[in-house]
């Protein structure tokens, strides 16, 4: 280290931190080390170096840059990611590896990997600084692109490390992009490894640049914080956090968990935005409060257009600090992504190098202008619907938690659980979502995804669900739990709802939290009354809402719902740690559905329950 960098590090009086950084230097053998204090000068240095080295390229609009990942490094690498556990322990649904074996492999891959490069060390806070919610983290990387992302997405917290000194407990992230090709992309994809060491609260990542595998504080940190949440009795969730404006200027806060392509981002953008992806939830004096650990968005860009996503589209097309990844640069230096509502260009440059209309890969498959998982990174401050409470160290009170998936034929568009326990078991833990073309496998099949968090779990699913149930037991004011389904179809395969209808469902949920609307009791929970929705459709969308539409959408499909219970029962019956009460709640729902079916038949109009 230079004298200046050494001084910066020694300002933090934390021997554990010094030991970790010294060890990483000794292992990775960089030529130099840069300590990022989070100052505007340091942020500027990282931005400039990303362009100078060629990890990013400047674009026509001021502040916009583009980064290209390898064609083989375009998404979270499930097959190369593992949770390291001692003694070869196994967990249901989670890829694990023996800790000693995994660390040995990782250390050999990282040995000398940064020769000829600068090591970057960044200090961040997950959650508002100085907040009871916040968790400190250190990111070490040799990628200016990765640290540029971290600087946008997280709160710089060098000052917090200085302040806390020896008291600072922190998560650790060590990443190297490995050897690069002429396009500055990770070259040794076959040696790509992402290992999460739970006992050491450390994530190692090598031979990858894709954000989900390399930006430590994103989904990699989620695995570490889920484990910490289990131990400390709170929830670390894959959820948006928004404020919904109700009558008379009232704002009610919601979190929401949706698997990919189920409406998560579009729902988050309807409200007053606090976060689009992650949330920490804690019990504070009997009510749930939440913060967003992030201050930026690492979002999927495909399909964002001025009609369906005006807020995001506006952000992406004006001067601002934005990193685009894996989109197309046209010949005049503009960006193009699939589904942006403009004609496809004839040629340009994308993650495969030179691109032209009709280009195919080595297997003869068409290469689209931008990758389906192309992304953008931007600060929350760029959004005009940002809620002022987004950085409140005390968090916001959560009135409702929403769970949604792609379901063509079973669940109604919106419903409310009877209570916390019923919601956790029959809505959150029973979440399924239809596969889309973007997910490997057969489109149309249902994928089990409890709490939309299965990909990121680092603990036994039974323990995770038990923690959820216990968390609710001690609340004096538990949030209401809602299920939504924007993807219900008729027999001809046509959607029964428009994209805009979710605005009405949010308003119904907001009013239910304040006990301003009655509801109909059905075997699966409470559903809206037709009269209330008719008024809300007129108020919110200035549209008539027909009784026939209501009857189709809110029919209780008993046979389909019973089939769902059988699927869920089978999955959980193979997990020994699931509490008995879980099955009791499922059984009660099953009996209600069987009784209703014997009385009213297979598909029951909502009016029968009034």
UniProtKB/TrEMBL annotation:
Binding site for Mn(2+): 219, 238, 277
Pathway the protein takes part in: Carbohydrate biosynthesis; gluconeogenesis
SUPFAM superfamilies: PEP carboxykinase N-terminal domain, PEP carboxykinase-like
Presence of the UniProt keyword Manganese in the record: yes
Catalytic activity: oxaloacetate + GTP = phosphoenolpyruvate + GDP + CO2
Gene3D superfamilies attached to this UniProt entry: 3.90.228.20, Phosphoenolpyruvate Carboxykinase, domain 1, Phosphoenolpyruvate Carboxykinase, domain 2
Localization, UniProt: Cytoplasm
Signal peptide coordinates: none
GO cellular component, one term: cytosol
Phosphoenolpyruvate carboxykinase C-terminal P-loop domain ranges (all copies): 234-592
Residues reported in the UniProt entry to bind substrate: 76, 210-212, 260, 373-375
Annotated EC: 4.1.1.32
Enzyme class name: lyase
UniProt keyword annotations, A-Z: Cytoplasm, Decarboxylase, Gluconeogenesis, GTP-binding, Lyase, Manganese, Metal-binding, Nucleotide-binding
Annotated Phosphoenolpyruvate carboxykinase GTP-utilising N-terminal domain residues: 19-229
UniProt similarity note: Belongs to the phosphoenolpyruvate carboxykinase [GTP] family.
Name the record gives this protein: Phosphoenolpyruvate carboxykinase [GTP]
Originating species: Vulcanisaeta moutnovskia (strain 768-28)
Gene that this sequence comes from: pckG
